[in-house]
UniProtKB/TrEMBL annotation:
Organism: mine drainage metagenome
A Pfam match: DUF2400
Protein name: TIGR02757 family protein
SUPFAM superfamilies with a match to the protein in the record: DNA-glycosylase
InterPro entries: CHP02757 (IPR014127), DNA_glycosylase (IPR011257)
Annotated GO biological process: DNA repair
Alphabetized GO MF terms: catalytic activity
């Protein structure tokens, strides 16, 4: 039987210390949001740079930033202008050789067509998400966004390229995906506090859900914020509920710190007294349970 692990009653204080001490500027340089911030000169450009960057957020952070850089080069440095003024055929031509992991240029060109159509219809990604969310909740907002982005282009447009629809999973799909990349995109758009952009004003920060990547899941599981070993939408909800008990107004402010504690190597993901010694959440860590006196 798997033993249930819970954080200590002092966990909220420990997490706040981890947050307050965290070197945001060091880790910002590693994070895709550092590139998005340079491209997001206004809300429209923020949405466009954000959705492309979130879509490319697969693999290590250096490769992700490199992929965003190559995409931006193909767009002559302005993704907003790329969508608004460059013809679809030309976009497809410029992106024909693009590759990042299993993501291909024809898929990004199709995404650019979808964005062009959305903005031409007078909608924005915020309005699509907001309408979906008002119809149910946060997961419904993500579902509305995913459905719109992966739907076929309007009449006579080309069908989505192979693998395109899989780039935008929804928590309401039968797989109950954690939808990490769309959830991350919404975090960037909604939170106004550093390092996020805060271009969306219709979604309360208290409604955000945690973008559950492997680093956040590892530390959340080992701090007892979830008992689930797999990443699913249910895990997202469980971790978010735990963070909301600490900060109901802005629970996802802890996401950047939890994620980059893993990415940076601040957390070795094993017991190592030299590294774990100063860790503010060590009293809550499953790996040190019952071993505090040994430290
Ligand atoms: S105590 Fe060590 S393993 Fe546990 S969260 Fe902190 S750094 Fe990571």
């Amino acid at each position: 039987m798997v033993r249930v692990h819970r954080p200590t009653p002092e966990f909220a204080d420990h997490l706040r210390v981890l947050y307050d001490r965290f070197p945001f500027d060091r880790s910002l340089a590693d994070d895709p949001i550092s590139v998005v911030r340079l491209l997001a000169l206004d809300p429209r450009r923020g949405e466009i740079a954000g959705i492309f960057a979130a879509t490319l957020a697969i693999g290590n952070t250096a490769a992700i930033r490199g992929a965003i850089g190559r995409l931006t080069d193909a767009a002559d440095g302005d993704l907003g202008r790329f969508i608004a003024t460059i013809p679809s055929v030309e976009r497809r031509h410029r992106l024909r050789a693009f590759r990042h992991r299993w993501i291909r240029g024809d898929q990004l060109a199709y995404l650019s067509d979808r964005l062009e159509a959305i903005y031409a219809s007078g909608e924005t990604l915020e309005s699509i998400f907001g309408n979906g969310m008002r119809g149910g909740g946060f997961a419904d907002g993500l579902d509305a966004l995913a459905r719109r982005l992966r739907s076929p282009a309007p009449s006579r447009g080309p069908r989505p390229p192979r693998g395109y629809r899989a780039l935008f999973p929804s928590p309401l799909d039968p797989s109950h995906s954690p939808a990490k990349r769309l959830t991350l995109f919404v975090r960037w758009m909604v939170r106004a506090r550093y390092p996020d952009l805060g271009y969306w004003h219709t979604v309360p920060t208290g409604e955000l859900r945690v973008p559950l990547d492997q680093h956040v899941h590892w530390i959340a599981y080992n701090l007892g914020l979830t008992q689930r070993r797999t990443r699913s939408w249910a895990t997202v909800e469980e971790v978010t509920r735990a963070l909301r008990q600490i900060d109901p107004i802005d629970p996802i402010k802890f996401d950047f710190v939890l994620c980059h504690t893993g990415i940076s190597g601040d957390c070795p993901k094993e017991r190592d007294i030299l590294i774990c010694g100063p860790c503010a959440v060590r009293p809550d860590c499953r790996l040190w349970h019952g071993r505090r006196s040994a430290a």
